[in-house]
């Protein structure tokens, strides 16, 4: 005894194929994004604060299929239109992906942008990050080997180097 009444014409557009591993999300799946106004407003406010020099962190969580990916793709498009650098890393459910796979994708995309400022921001952290990205040794051939440390300390050192690299890189923009 209940139903829906649709008003207006329904328009369908084909999805744009993307290389989800390497390319930033620039185009959304369709031109119309509906719902999630409160969440998008919160993300947009955080983006404004970030663009004004106050870093923000957001955690988007929820059950599978509820639209998290679609919302973040729309937000990434919005952020890129406002001049923000958008770097994408995706987790893989399949076995065999290297440790820190999303970070590897993000760092590669950022480094491959080819900006000299990016490379100069990387230099103080290249020795540590090259453990995850061996191709950095081509960019920085004089990298000295690091002393061996326990796995937990090595992981901390790596994540700290990545954080410091992105902080330095963001300041140069």
Secondary-structure topology with pairs:
Blueprint: H1 37-51, H2 68-81, H3 101-111, H4 116-122, H5 126-129, H6 136-139, H7 151-171
Helix pairs in contact: 1-2, 4-7
Give an account of the 3D structure.
This protein is an all-alpha fold and 173 residues long. It has 7 helices and no strands. It has helices at residues 37-51, 68-81, 101-111, 116-122, 126-129, 136-139, 151-171. Helix 4 runs antiparallel to helix 7 (151-171). The N and C termini lie far apart (58 Å). Mean pLDDT is 81; it is low at 14-24.
Give structural attributes:
173 residues; mainly alpha; 0% strand; globular
Residue windows where pLDDT falls under 50 for at least 5 positions: 14-24
The overall pLDDT average reads 81
Described by the principal axes of the CA atoms, the overall outline is globular
Report the portion of residues in β strands: under 5%
Characterize the main sheet. Answer: none
Quick gist of this model?
The protein contains seven helices and no strands. The protein has helices at residues 37-51, 68-81, 101-111, 116-122, 126-129, 136-139, 151-171. The longest helix is centred in the last third of the chain and has 21 residues, at 151-171.
